[in-house]
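Re: Re: token formats

Sure, here are both.
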Amino acid sequence: MSADLRRLAPLISLIGAPTDIGAGARGASMGPEALRVANLQSTLEAHGLEVVDRGNLAGPRNPWLPPTEGYRHLAEVVAWNTAVHEAVHAELGLGRLPILLGGDHCLAIGSISAVARHCREAGKKLRVLWLDAHADFNTNVLTPTGNVHGMPVACLCGRGPQALIEIGGQVPAINPKWVRQIGIRSVDAGERRLVHEVDLEVFDMRYIDEMGMRHTMELALATLDANTHLHVSFDVDFLDPPIAPGVGTTVNGGPTYREAQLCMEMIADTGRLASLDVMELNPAFDVRNATAVLAVDLVESLFGKSTLMRK
């Protein structure tokens, strides 16, 4: 990479959040180390990127208790998300691109509220791509489990407990119109009604089947400009389970390897990616770390790896 290109490349910070505090199965706490074992840092550095690993955040252990008033482990979830919020906001303030290594997807409350706060301070617009099998728009009234990893988008949009929705200093942290959900194929009945009520833009798997990933991503990325901060929240259960077994909440019928690669490559083509979550990787369900290796492969595509041979 030339010196000029190296100056333009993002400075990347890896932040581990080793907890399964919001999940319904243990094991996502091992996700950050699995991504490191799969050579995430050296893979990105091979593209000429400067990558610093900030290590792991600390937070309360998982007490593994039943729900209280519709929430499992609310105090612990708040503590972890507060730590994530401060760490991600600090890296953005240094002009760096944070990659949050989860951990379960409840941690997106902390990361995306930090990104939204940064955008307010910098006068930027925000676009969130939510790559997931689930809409994650449950509330304590709607949830069948009380697991907060099914609630982060609702909390970010102001539908949740005060202690979570106020992280970041503004309620709601984001406008639902800033979000594009891709790959959705598991939504609870009450959750579906709420998603329609707030008019969340969802490209579910039927849409992708009918219209293709290329058209889906063209719409999801439409109207991005130089003043838009693009955040990608990548839940590994977005992928079809046969290629990505290492998650606790598999749902059949997700994107194939090539569809996922196209998704990531089209995001990379925008040049707007400014922050990233990699969530719900659970080595307890994986086979020889294959899902972590695949996740690193896809993250590499977000930062410029391409099979493109056309002139």
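Second one below.
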Amino acid sequence: MLLTGLGLGLALGFTMQRGRFCVTGAFRDLWITGSTRWLTAFLIVVAVQSVGVFALDAAGVITLDPQPFAWLATILGAFIFGFAIVLAGGCATGTYYRAGEGLVGSWFALIFYALFSAMSKTGALAGPVAALRGVTVPASTIHGFLGVSPWPLVAILVTGVGLLARHHLRLRSPLPMASLPARSTGLRHLLFEKKWGAFTTALIIAALAILAWPLSWATGRESGLGITGPSSAIVNYLVQGDAEVIDWGVYLVLGILIGAFIAAKGSGEFRIRIPDALTTVRSIGGGALMGVGASLAGGCTIGNAMVNTATFGFQGWVSLLFMIIGTGAATRLFITGSARVGTSPALVPANR
């Protein structure tokens, strides 16, 4: 059953690479251009997944078990994480799939993200992180706090996101876009050449996110998609050799890396790209801060902002807000504030 994590990870990495699904870009665009197109795509994943996860819970396939809300650690960690993803040039999954494309800067970011995740969960930083996460309030979910069924909230979310999506679809230019002649036909053309739309990509990711719940649950890992914990587990396995830490989530993140490589190789987008010294330093620093921030917040842009939001957890929605604020602070400091002197390519995720 653990191999289902690898299979789902392959599909997720392939989809994110081909769709250029960059959460960092979605957050950054709010501050640079005011565009909400990619944020809307991200929210489509949340809304569709929310329908699926509460349906699975109602059917008894999974049982959602909300935990106390570590409000202080979530706010601090989410801000740090949002700031860090601009430095690293991508969030957790973005770093995985860009590493699969051959970006050496993302290799550095990924290594230090995993390393500092492990340090924050089980190593030298575990004590301070645990102390901050120990500052909690009983309220854990929005519907639990309000004392209502989650389904009205699901309906509101789906309706709101649907209206946003319709708005962006209406803004699409009716004029055909110029493109190179297709080099192949059939399935290969569809998978490796044809441009994947933001909203189509979001729907595929949402379906995979829903599927992750029962597949992960069947192995004893009672959660959906998650990146930080599995990344930390890989480091712990390499250092301690404890095979028990290798769970469904570890296979998932390895699958993301391999799936992105297959997609990049098949589409001709794979190549080794070596960053300059400044980009390397920023990638390392961004990766390290990502690991600390995600551990403090209890998850990254996937585990918190995409998955915990779908279950209407306070941790997820507060994380999403402060990740966006953190991204805005770093964007102002490193991108828009440095526009007159130039910007490092690693700070501008290529999701377009």
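Confidence is low (pLDDT under 50) at residues 340-346, 348-352. The first helix runs from residue 3 to 19.
- S.
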